[in-house]
Amino acid sequence: MGGVLWNIGAFVVALGLLVAVHEFGHFWVARRCGVKVERFSIGFGKAIWRRMGKDGTEYVLALIPLGGYVKMLDGRVDELKPGDEQYAFNHKSVWARMAIVAAGPMANFVFALFALWLMFIIGVPSVKPVIGEVRPASIVAEAGVLPGMEIVGVGDEQTGDWESVTYALISHLGDDAVTLKVQAPNTSYATDKTLSLTGWTFDPDKESPIGSLGIVPLSGKVLPVVAAVVAKSASEKAGLQVGDRIKQVGDQPITAWAQFVELVQQAPGEPLQVVVERNNSDLNVTLTPDSRKVQGKLVGFVGLSPQLVPLPDEYRILLQYGPLQALWHGADKTWSLITLTFDMIGKLVAGIVSLDNLSGPISIAKGAGSSADYGLVYFLSFLALISVNLGIINLFPLPVLDGGHLVYFLIEAVTGKPVSEKIQEVGFRIGAAILMLLMGIALFNDFARL
C-alpha cells in the first residue's frame, strides 16, 4: 500500500509540475503579446488560495494539483467592453496567436533542458558500457561481439554509458541492421560489428533492448555463497549458515546464484537435496522452499541473501560537469530525447512499433515512483523525459491539442481568413475521439501489465 501511495504522490508532483510549466508558457507569451490574462490557475477544482495581481490577473491555487489552465480574454466566448479588442486573444495577429499556442510545448522543452542541466551539475553515477556476457546464438554473438568489449558507439552516436547505448539502440528499432562500435580490452581503437536487426523485437516489460540482443552488462558478481539467513525461514530450518557455499541442488552443479534461485522458485513445498561447502567440507542438507504467490503463480523462496562482489571502481563513472558544460550536455540530451520521441511516433504510425508499447498514467506513476526511489538525479531525468513527451504530444495536429490550433492558424495565415467555426467544431470532435481512443489503448496496456 505504501508503494502505491508513493507512486501516486510522485505522479502528482511530476504531472502537476509539468502541466503547470506548460500553461506558464502560454501565460508568459500571452502577456508579452498584450493579451489580457484573466486567470492563471495551478490545479483544478475548488480554489484553496487566490490573489488578484496588479496586472489584473487572478492567480489561483486549486485543490486538484493535476496541471492548470490559463483563461485569456477572448471575444469568441467573452463579451468585450469598448476598447477591450486590443487585449483579446482573437483580435491579435495570426502570428501572435501561433506564438502563444506554441509557447506551451516550448516551455516543456525548456524545462527538460533545465532539469537535465541541473542533473548534470549534481552528477549522475553511471557505469561504462562494458559487456559482461554474450548469450549463445544471440544477435550480438552472430556478429562476433565478445565479452569484455566496451560499446563506444551505436550507428553514428557515441556512447559513454548504458543509458546512451539503450536510447541509441531503440532509435534503430525497425531497421535492417546497425553498426556497433566496440573496443576490446587493452586496446585504443574501435572496430565495427554489424548487427542484423531483421525481425528484432522485444517486450519492454520483460527485457531491455540490450538484453534482447544477447548482451549481459558487466556488473558486480553475485556468488552462490550465503551472506544472510532470514529468521524462521526454510533456510534456517534446514540448518544453512552464513558462509555456506551452495555447490549442488539434486544432480545439478551450481556455479551461479541465478541457477539456485531458479531451482528454488520452481519447487515450492518440494524438498530439495542441497550440497553446501562449509569449513572446507561438503555437507548434505534437505531444503524445502516455502510457497509465495507471485502474479497468480506459486513460487518457492527460502530466505537467503547471497554474497555480493561489487563492480570495480575502474568501471564506474560520474557524469558531472560545470555550469556551461552541463548546459551543453543537457541541450544535447534534450535534442536526443526530442528526435527519439518523434522517431518512435513515426514508427508507431508506420506499424513498426506495436501499439502494445503505448503507456498511460499507471505506467507513468510507476516510473515516477521508481525514479524518485533512486534519488533526485534520476527523478530529474524522468521529469525531462515526460516533459519532452508532453510537449511533443501537444504538438500533434489534433484540433483539441495545441498542434491542431497551430494547423488552423497556419491555414488562416495562408488563406488570409480563419477556418470556419463549423469546420473547427467537427475537427474538435474528431480529434477528441482519436485522443480518447489512444488513451483507452494506453490504459488497457497499463492494466494488462499489472
Mean pLDDT: 83
Question: Which structural category do the helix and sheet elements fall into?
Answer: alpha+beta
Residue share in helices? 40-55%
In terms of DSSP E residues, the strand content is 15-25%
Distance between the termini: 15 Å
Radius of gyration (CA) equals: 28 Å
Structural description of this entry:
This protein is α+β, with helices and mostly antiparallel strands. It is 43% helix and 25% strand. It has twelve helices and 18 strands. It has helices at residues 2-32, 94-122, 139-142, 162-170, 209-212, 234-238, 257-265, 323-350, 361-374, 376-393, 402-415, 421-449; strands at residues 37-52, 58-72, 124-127, 131-134, 150-154, 157-158, 177-183, 191-196, 215-217, 221-229, 245-249, 252-253, 272-278, 281-287, 290-294, 297-301, 304-309, 316-319. The strands form seven sheets. The chain has a four-stranded antiparallel β-sheet. Strands 12-11-13-14 form a four-stranded antiparallel β-sheet. It has a two-stranded antiparallel sheet with strand order 1-2. Helix 1 crosses helix 10 (376-393) and helix 2 packs antiparallel against helix 11 (402-415). The longest helix is centred in the first third of the chain and has 31 residues, at 2-32. It is elongated and about 100 Å long. The relative contact order is 0.12. Residues 358-373 have low confidence and may be disordered.
